[in-house]
Design a protein that fits this description.
The protein has 307 residues and is mainly beta. Helix content is 9%, strand content 55%. It has two helices and 15 strands. Strand 3 and strand 4 form a beta hairpin. The N terminus is likely disordered.
Length: 307
């Protein structure tokens, strides 16, 4: 690959003007990554980067969020214009739409006529004629979103033979490869029984796996986490209220499901099995009044967003 400073430039003009900087950068990065002999620069920044005359011009026109037209003018003595249209569905994340547009610009720019007067391509880039089609590299699979956030209502095992816990959860997942991610969550839940109020605060930290899609609209993640649960109890007797709390360690194995709604948002659900270091017996005035479950199932439903 040629050094960055001498690579020919492809000027990319995006319409409508002034797109979100993060989306524009996603498109330009994908475009440059798809080229071995050029780099993509926003047309509005050509002078700032002192890039000189572009060897090609790409016009990316978003008719609406789900449809884009890409035109590339190749800088030869006899200019040639190539065009491609892309359509997306509501379940396609916005970042991936812009990334796909960038790779398409690179594909059109790679037309042999663009390089007719340029230095020959590196030998490694040329494929022998007798290489079977199956040996030709294919585009990389879409990268998972860098960050996902979920906010959900919770319900599940709380007091043994008593009220379930009800509360809320906030969860984050951060990708560290195309298959795995780190995850963490905070949960708060309450349950009430006669003269006893119980509160749970759970902190979780672990790792997870992006499950390959088994049904197109649905995205799934599996995770294994360490738990730290704070159990707090308020017992009332006459006019006296006694409060106690304890920390309990544990493990959780769970799955998160996301049904995309468009623009990164989706319906988020979870199902978790958890185990704690023993159940916690709740007593009042020496009498056993309830037991906090040492294992059980938690269900959640809410909204999630991908970045």
């Amino acid at each position: 690959m040629l050094p960055h400073c001498v690579l020919p430039v492809v000027a990319v003009q995006i319409s409508p003007k002034d797109p979100a900087p993060v989306l524009e950068e996603r498109l330009l990065s994908a475009c440059s990554a798809g080229l071995k002999r050029a780099r993509c620069v926003a047309a509005t920044r050509l002078q700032q980067e002192d890039a000189g005359e572009p060897r090609a011009v790409a016009v990316v026109s978003w008719d609406d969020p789900s449809h884009v037209t890409i035109e590339v003018g190749l800088g030869t003595e006899q200019p040639v214009w190539l065009q491609r249209e892309l359509g997306f569905t509501e379940r396609d994340p916005e970042f991936e739409r812009w990334r796909a547009a960038g790779f398409t610009v690179a594909l059109l720019v790679d037309d042999p006529r663009f390089w007719a007067e340029s230095a020959p391509a590196p030998a490694a880039a040329a494929a022998p004629e007798d290489v079977p089609p199956s040996a030709v590299p294919t585009p990389a699979a879409p990268e998972p979103p860098a960050v996902e956030l979920d906010l959900r209502a919770l319900g599940g095992a709380g007091l043994v033979s008593g009220a379930w816990r009800r509360g809320a959860e906030v969860r984050a997942r951060v990708a560290f490869s195309s298959a795995f991610f780190a995850t963490g969550a905070a949960e708060y839940a309450l349950a009430s029984q006669t003269d006893v109020d119980v509160r749970w605060f759970d902190a979780a930290l672990g790792v997870g796996w992006y499950v390959p899609s088994f049904w197109a609209p649905l995205q799934s993640r599996l995770r294994l986490e360490l738990l730290a649960e704070n159990l707090a109890v308020s017992a009332k007797q006459a006019s006296i209220t006694e409060r106690r709390n304890v920390w309990v360690p544990g493990l959780a194995l769970g799955s998160d499901l996301l049904w995309p709604l468009g623009s990164g948002w989706g319906v988020s659900a979870r199902i978790d099995g958890f185990w704690l270091d023993g159940s916690s017996v709740i007593t009042d005035a020496g009498q056993r009044v309830a037991v906090s479950a040492g294992a059980g199932i938690l269900l959640g439903l809410g909204a999630g967003v991908q970045f």
